[in-house]
Amino acid sequence: MLADEQLELAQNSSICDELMDFVMDRGRDHWNCNCERYSEQSPWNVDDPDRPEIPVHPNCSCEWRPHIMTDDEIMARFEKEMKEDMEAIREGGDDGTETIKSLSDEDAAGIDYSKTIEIQPASLRKGEPAIATAISIEEKIRKFHNEAAFIIDSEGNKIFDNPWGGRDSVEIDKSLLKNNTVTHNHPAGGTLSDKDVAAFAIYDAQEFRACTPSEINFSIRRSNEGIDKTIVDDYNLGMDRIRSDAGVYARENSETEEEFKMLYAKIVSEQAHNWLVKNAKDYGCIYALEDRRK
């Protein structure tokens, strides 16, 4: 029913302000019901306990009309959320740790990444000590059901390990990130998340890597020009929009909650990858995919 879909949009979309208008059925001369009164009480908050349920009566064709924010309002909200996220990221944990998080804990398999980027053989970089160590670790952790993270210095020494992360996140020691390489696994697949890229850029890591249960490894590293740290805010903003659009599309094209979760995860992962393919180089970063089998 349209009213249910509009209510879902108002409750879950990041471009709605949680207010809705009660819009009456058109083409009628009068109403022998409460619909007119409900319309006059607009706007309604989505969480208002007195909000009427549509249909109000048999054959009721009224609907909810969510309030869509203006571009300025959307930007203001995103900027406020990003400021709060950045403050939390910079503060990190009280114990000196930083939590990096996957895009989703749902399986993001089935994406053909080769359509948008040339996938390099992982063996091409085995001459770099840090990468040789990382690749060796990735072969051991890529099929873990929980996230595990390791920090490796430029000589290939493992200087930090945490093999006991959660399903979609793991803590690392932020004080050890500068000029070093981080590798970790994404049990559900998918590229580097906004949390990964934020930690990479803010703490001046040399490279951030994510291995998956498939043959694909994801990587972002500094170019010789260095990192433009505005990538943190811009990727966060891009991911906010991607998640919002993915939620609406997946809801409209799924019949079950399981279908919704799978489709949402696939869209988010694919669009996040596309964002990095298109934009990473503009921030002094090299985004790459590797085939671990080659």
Overview of this protein structure:
There is one protein chain. By secondary structure, the chain is α+β, with helices and mostly antiparallel strands. The protein has two domains: 2-69, no CATH class; 73-291, no CATH class. Helix content is 36%, strand content 21%. It has helices at 2-12, 35-40, 71-91, 129-141, 194-202, 230-252, 257-279; strands spanning 16-23, 44-45, 63-68, 97-101, 120-121, 149-152, 158-162, 169-173, 181-185, 207-211, 216-222, 285-291. The strands form three sheets. Strands 5-12-11-10-9-6-7 form a seven-stranded mixed sheet, sandwiched between helices. Helix 6 runs antiparallel to helix 7. The longest helix has 23 residues, at 230-252. The N and C termini lie far apart (51 Å). The mean pLDDT is 83.
Can you describe this structure in just a few lines?
With 294 residues, the chain is of the alpha+beta class. The chain is 36% helix and 21% strand. A hairpin with a 4-residue loop joins strand 10 and strand 11 (216-222).
As a percent range, the share of strand residues is 15-25%
Shape: elongated
Order of secondary-structure elements: HEHEEHEEHEEEEHEEHHE
Strand order of the largest sheet: 5-12-11-10-9-6-7
List keywords for this structure.
single chain, 294 residues, alpha+beta, seven-stranded mixed β-sheet, three-stranded antiparallel β-sheet, 7 helices, 12 strands, 21% strand
Secondary-structure blueprint:
Layout: H1 2-12, E1 16-23, H2 35-40, E2 44-45, E3 63-68, H3 71-91, E4 97-101, E5 120-121, H4 129-141, E6 149-152, E7 158-162, E8 169-173, E9 181-185, H5 194-202, E10 207-211, E11 216-222, H6 230-252, H7 257-279, E12 285-291
Parallel strand pairs: 5-12, 9-10
Antiparallel strand pairs: 1-2, 1-3, 4-8, 6-7, 6-9, 10-11, 11-12
Helix pairs in contact: 3-6, 5-6, 6-7
